[in-house]
Amino acid sequence: MRTKQVFSALMALVCGAALLSACGSSGTSSAASASSAATAAGSPQAAAESTGTAASDGTAGEAGTTSSGANGTLRVGMSADYAPFDWLQNDDSNGAVKTTNGSYINGYDVMMAKQVTSELGMNLEITQVDWNGLIMAITSDKVDCAIAGMSITSERKKSVDFTDWYYQANTALVVNKDSKYAGAKSLKDLAGGKFTSAQNTTWYAALDQLNGIATKGAALQTFAALVSAVHSGIVDGFTCDVPSAESLLKTNPDLLIVKFDEGKGFQDNDEDVNLGIAVKKGNTELVDKINGVLEKMTDDDRDKLMKEAVAAEPANSIS
């Protein structure tokens, strides 16, 4: 899903005009800490420092809180830049969680975090961390885990452990409705075009499948930038995950998701589509606890949560 990078000012730009935000690395999944995936479908990279903390259903954990959620609090890192997985908004509507700096975070990842902590009988504390800083936040014990549309890649496994996947998202291609590529049925039909995606994402890597067919443009940082590039004709389209694409179409009705014939579109592997919850390496206790919650969820449960997340995303999202 998203090899995600933090797309900043994603939603704000997309909703206001039309298009950043990834998850990821791969995706079945991203604007710096202040952008939203509704503007486009990726999730860019950002700084490596935490930008704020969000507390919900309990007091924030102490600095010494362990990764197993000592004091009954699970500290979760999110980048808040990757709608419909996570975004910032102006109030606590639709179950958003208030951050300690006064902002509110919501989305599929927030809903998943609530599900996990509810099942485990723990309080939830959410810390907003720029995408590129999430793994560092885990390894330095600033958070216990990251629920942020993060693809389970072999490279990331060198630094953190992952739970089983909590969502799967396939790669989508977004173009203008009036584009000559709107009716493409296979990758070969994209001949002569120019396409891009978010930097450091599996979506951008997926464009290598167009070698000899189309041009792979320079990667961009935010969903806003991706949408803007399509609107201005700089590129013919961009790749991202399906949920993010569906989210951005709500505010950009002039765009569409290309419907390839079965087996003729981008070929995803597990690393591209499986999104997992990242945990500090060696913390098998927390991984096992979270997996115990995830294994009870069905595909229908996950799809229901995602539909709720897409529907809940406000037009004035500021993530």
Task: Describe the 3D structure.
The chain is α/β, with parallel strands linked by helices and 319 residues long. The chain has one domain: D-Maltodextrin-Binding Protein, domain 2. Helix content is 24%, strand content 22%. The protein has helices at residues 10-16, 108-120, 134-139, 202-206, 223-232, 242-249, 270-273, 284-294, 299-312; strands at residues 50-56, 73-78, 87-89, 97-98, 104-106, 123-129, 145-151, 160-168, 171-176, 194-196, 215-216, 237-241, 255-257, 274-280. The strands form three sheets. Strands 1-6-2-7-14-8 form a six-stranded mixed beta sheet. Strand 10 (194-196), helix 4 (202-206) and strand 11 (215-216) form a beta-alpha-beta unit. Helix 1 (10-16) runs parallel beside helix 5 (223-232) and helix 2 (108-120) crosses helix 8. The longest helix has 14 residues, at 299-312. The radius of gyration is 18 Å and the shape is globular. The chain starts with 9 loop residues before the first helix and ends in a 7-residue tail after the last helix.
